Amino acid sequence: MDNTNLLEVRDLRVRFRTGKTSTFEAVKGISFAVPRNSTVALVGESGSGKSVSSLAVMGLLPPDTTLIDPAGSILFRGRDVLKLSVAERRRMCGKDISMIFQEPMSSLNPVFTVGYQIGEVLRQHMGMGKKQARLRTLALLDEVGIPDPAQKIDAYPSQMSGGQQQRVMIAMAIACEPELLIADEPTTALDVTIQKQIMELIASLQRKRQMSVLFITHDLGLVGEIAGQVIVMRHGEVREAGATRQIFGDPQDSYTKALLHCRPSLDTRPWRLPVINDYMEGKAGAGVALKQRARGTAPDDEHVLVVDKLSKSFYVREGLFGQREFKAVKDVSFKLARGKTLGVVGESGSGKTTVGLTLLRLHQATGGTAMFEGKDLISMPAREYMAYKRRIQIIFQNPYASLNPRYTVGQILLEPMKLHNIGASERERVENACQLLEKVGLPAHAFHRYPHEFSGGQRQRIAIARCLTMKPEILVCDESVSALDVSVQAQVLNLLQDLQDEFGLSYIFISHDLSVVKYIADQVMVMHQGAVVELADSDQLYRNPSHPYTRSLLAAIPRHDFG
User: Fold this and answer.
1) CA-CA distances (angstroms) from residue 161 to 103, 236, 348, 349?
2) Span 438-458, pLDDT tens digits
3) pTM, two decimal places
4) Tag placement on the chain: N or C end, fewer CB within 10 Å?
């Protein structure tokens, strides 16, 4: 054990039982170290083994189905944690080693206050009494930047925003002053400004408390913000490791190069985004000259949708008979050009998703008009709207929740065609469905399989194919690539662009990721607290933003020169 290293993982191999005699090797003999008082980033896509490795360190893998090769070791302060008893491991993990999980709402107990949950850690590991634990909890909430800790200490997780929930998780993790903090994708679901705040908070806590941090992410763009060293994983193996500056400036492995360049850049807009296979097969590289795609609108553009003063209010019961109005969307106006993309950006709660859902009448508007071919989609009777419903479709954020798990892919694609009388016969509908699967890059045999048999990116392709069955003219993409790995995100963005080029589709692309919006949008609409604060062509807005809120969003984007 090197005395400069707090944690050393040596030849770690983890397998999972998948049947009575079969196993799957998720981690294949990896080795890495986390020095004292430093931050190391473990980077890779879903299925790379990075989270499994961290859970092995914490002892949180299910014992009944997990096999860890005894030839490997996990040394923490020179002790092999794999050889500790369950009681010793439990005392160490939570006090000396702690972890921030990816999804705070799944990690926090919804029936207990946040104060109780942080206090429980202190009572369990530090032996504090109830009063002492509460005072310490107040100090921790203040340290992680929770506003008005005296009030928030008695709040439930559901009463807090996503960023505040993640801060509570950080407070819980640092409560016992651990020497090692493992942060597993702590910013994946957060807005760009909240993401920056959490990154800055973790970095400041690391410096202040002189902790070591193992930061796990699929986004290399975040790594330069926090880590001094990077370990790149793929398919359970370490592909490349080294200092962050060296990895960014001169990556040696083709997979590392792919991760760096698959993500859209603020500086260039290639005709197509490179994907992992382009680099693995030697078809792309940083020095390859790529044709650039022009973006923007023109005065003579035909407008397929004209929205004027769209409003949506929700009403919350207050008292016995009263109610309070919450204005989620306030007089939003815009024009969507045929064959072009309008990007809608803003933080959570800005009203951007509500705009999309209101246009599709999934929410009932409280004011305004949405003119489509001279007809107001908002005020027309439901019977008349049925004819327009198939022409405006939505791709939801979560492909895991938006596809019926009991239907085969074929049934998912055929159902909307039957409902809208598309296709003269069942045979014609099946042929159309198979053609659409091919169009979105899925094999024909996918027709007979179920959603759970596909990856997240493939499920999003199925969701896109379902929308295309109705031959829409407008697609509302609601955070439709935000949950995907950067390489899968690039594939879906390329697919959306190909479909727009071929069919002349118009997109309303809702996202909190400004790099993605810069790549795909012709025009960008910035929303804040339900209102439009800026609307301009993409290049103009990114080059010269006029509103302070837009400038704050752009300033929060991680920017690095990848060489």
Assistant:
1) 12, 34, 9, 9
2) 888 888 889 999 988 887 778
3) 0.83
4) C
